[in-house]
Design a protein that fits this description.
This protein is an alpha/beta fold.
């Protein structure tokens, strides 16, 4: 049943946030959905990302014919114009700057104005925010949560299949 919902949400370009405990299969169901639908996607472990290096790129001087120059950014090779989906695992363990960059990515399909022309969706997976500090996670800003059309709570039950 979840497979059909994920396929529907992907087909309709809806941003999805999966919420669940470690090991419940969040990453597996997302990767399976993208692969089943032949989606060109990027996977990131958000907790290890640097928003500037991983999305925007590194600065490089560009010289103009009139003797002036400016800084432009060279994106990582994997960040290209053919990307249709981005999956950020461990999103609520990521740096605040990354979460702010993702807000622009979702709303405008760009990072600092650099467009991702074929980007359809940004999907994330998070561990639950809990009072017992079971997980080393950040409480997400309501505006960050609001960027995702769909919030799915994943059950924490074994699936032997």
């Amino acid at each position: 049943m979840l497979e059909k919902k994920l396929d529907f949400w992907l087909k309709n370009n809806l941003n999805v946030m999966l919420i669940g405990h470690k090991g419940c299969g969040k990453t597996t169901v997302i990767r399976d959905c993208f692969n089943r639908n032949n989606i060109n996607y990027l996977y990131f472990s958000a907790s290890t990302m640097d928003p500037a290096l991983d999305f925007l790129g590194v600065p490089k001087e560009v010289k103009c014919g009139d003797g002036t120059s400016y800084l432009d950014f060279v994106r990582p090779k994997y960040v290209n114009d053919d990307i249709e989906a981005i999956y950020l695992d461990e999103y609520n363990r990521s740096d605040k700057k990354l979460r702010n960059a993702v807000m622009e990515l979702i709303q405008f399909k760009s990072i600092n104005g650099k467009k991702f022309p074929k980007l359809r969706v940004v999907w994330t997976a998070i561990n639950p925010d809990d009072e017992n500090n079971e997980y080393d996670v950040e409480k997400l800003d309501p505006a960050q949560i609001d960027r995702f059309h769909i919030h799915v709570s994943m059950p924490y039950t074994p699936n032997y299949i």
